[in-house]
Amino acid sequence: MTGRTRRALIAPVLVVSAIVAFLALLWLGQRRLIYFPFQSLPPVALELPGGAEVRFETDDGLRLGGWYLPATEQPARATVLVANGNGGNRAMRAPLARALATRGMNVLLFDYRGYGGNPGSPTEAGLLADARAARDWLGSRGRRSTRPASSTWANPWGAAWWWGWPPRCSRLP
């Protein structure tokens, strides 16, 4: 085999190897490309005056945190569960909670596992378990609205999990 033929064969092998290595890195790091949790969280009193720090437990035993803000006038017209998106944490949703509370709605802001100082790492099944636990916390205190369309709020990513997408995930009962 001549030097020229050898170089002609090595170049495509190097290119294919580089592509395979790049795809392998993408595959191994895909969780970091999907989930962008913010861990630091200011005190509820600083971000949401009148709000309360709440804790609830998921079916798999994680204790998650959230902030509950009652409507400024009771009885509330509705209760809104705010599911976070794939970036940030509940502190970034505090302006939304204040606006909803002044319009007569109770609000629960919560963070999924791995977000806002909560333990665990986000997974598809875990996100659904977290949303169920937040919903159940509201229901156990009589703060859940009976009209689903007026009781949930989520960023597009959070809404997808809330309503059971992708299809292989069961909907929240």
Describe what you observe in this structure:
By secondary structure, the chain is an alpha/beta fold. The protein has helices at residues 3-28, 30-34, 44-47, 94-102, 124-140, 148-151, 156-162; strands at residues 36-37, 52-57, 63-69, 78-83, 87-88, 105-110, 152-154. The strands form two sheets. The protein has a five-stranded mixed beta sheet with strand order 2-3-6-4-7, with helices on both faces. The protein has a two-stranded parallel ribbon with strand order 1-5. The protein is elongated, with a radius of gyration of 22 Å.
Key phrases:
alpha/beta, disordered C terminus, single chain, 7 helices, five-stranded mixed β-sheet, 173 residues, two-stranded parallel ribbon
Count helical runs.
7
Measured by DSSP, the beta-strand proportion falls in 15-25%
The run of helices and strands is HHEHEEEEHEHHEH
The main pleated sheet reads as:
5 strands, mixed
Shape: elongated
The helix content is: 40-55%
| Radius of gyration from the alpha-carbon trace, in angstroms | 22 Å
Q: Taking strands numbered 1, 2, ... along the chain, how are they ordered across the largest sheet?
A: 2-3-6-4-7
Query: Whole-Å distance between the termini?
Result: 68 Å
Q: How many beta strands in the DSSP annotation?
A: 7
Name the average pLDDT: 79
Give the topology, please.
Elements: H1 3-28, H2 30-34, E1 36-37, H3 44-47, E2 52-57, E3 63-69, E4 78-83, E5 87-88, H4 94-102, E6 105-110, H5 124-140, H6 148-151, E7 152-154, H7 156-162
Parallel strand pairs: 1-5, 4-6, 4-7
Antiparallel strand pairs: 2-3, 3-6
